[in-house]
Write a structure and sequence with these properties.
Layout: E1 4-7, E2 17-18, E3 27-31, E4 39-40, E5 63-67, E6 72-77, E7 80-93, E8 95-103, E9 106-115, E10 124-135, E11 142-151, E12 159-168, E13 176-183, E14 187-196, E15 202-211, E16 217-227, E17 231-240, E18 247-254, E19 265-268
Antiparallel strand pairs: 1-2, 1-12, 3-6, 4-5, 5-12, 6-11, 7-10, 7-12, 8-9, 8-11, 13-14, 14-17, 15-16, 15-18, 18-19
Amino acid sequence: GDKDWLQLSTRDYTDYAKKASGVSAITNFTHLDPSYRELAGDTQFTYTYTDAAAGTQPGNNKAIVAKSVGNGFSFNLPSGKTAQKITFGVSMYRATARAELLINGATYYSGTVTANVSSGLPLSSSKIFEINYIAPNPTDVVEVRVILTESFASGTGGSLCLSFVALSANGSVGQTISTNAEKFADTAKGSYKIYNASDETLDALCILAEYNADGQLVNLSRKTIRVDAWCSDVAEIVSPSTRPGGTTRAFIWDAKTLVPLCEISEHSLT
């Protein structure tokens, strides 16, 4: 982490090894069950470093532990118009955890890691999460949560172990534009997601087209949304349909040039 890092080397969530960076970029590190104290010493993660803050030292294979469904850890990250990358190491023992990055309370990324003896998976499992993000507004609130969501051991036996968190200033986020088409017996639906990773405002024309079983266009709906530079937005088009079978397609064009911006999403109902 060239910008900041911390390594959870004690059972106390307020006492950890960290980068000698002066002002921390990773802030408000919190254990969601602050009264619980446990340190794991057998994770798979080891470290090399040259920039630890005075009086702190990363501990190989060590990680802070959370138990019981709903418990885990959270911390905040800085905003900025350039892409940043957050990396953190999670280990599980007979449990599943969900990791999320939220911007202003909305989920930007979500992923899981699991270890479950009963399903034939290993007793324990580790995963390194790498999330690239952009939060362009100074007032944007960026939060990461790592929560134990399911335990496969009796009582509170399932464990979530968080080993390290590292923040890099050299993230990579490109233009993200996607569509999803759905067709039901009496409804056609298009969902549209746009992340505008550029310095220019984007006017996006969202289109929902419905075709009958012979491939003829029978219904067309559209909506234009304006997405500011380095911002994201979502849209939805729902159109009533009384036609059995056929296909629904959702796509996005640049409203100014009518150039397609992503591949067509298609859903057929026979």
